[in-house]
Amino acid sequence: MIVKVNAALDAARTLGRPVDIASWRHAEQLPALFNGMPMGTRILA
To answer: What's a Gene Ontology MF term here (predicted)?
Structure first.
């Protein structure tokens, strides 16, 4: 998990915007994530 968090933190800093870490276990929830609904872990830059 630490690798995903570090990668998300690097991406958030590079992009200058929040990055979400979401599970693919429930792929039917991904459209909600794309529409801005909170899901998973949000990493702030």
So the answer is: acetylglutamate kinase activity
Distance CA 32, CA 12 (A): 20
The whole-number pLDDT of residue 12 equals 97
2-43 pLDDT, tens digit each = 999 999 999 999 999 999 998 888 888 889 988 988 888 999
Q: What does the block give as tokens for 20?
A: 């979400």
Give the domain range for residue 6.
2-43
CA dist., res. 1 & res. 23, Å (int): 12
Structural domains counted in the chain? 1
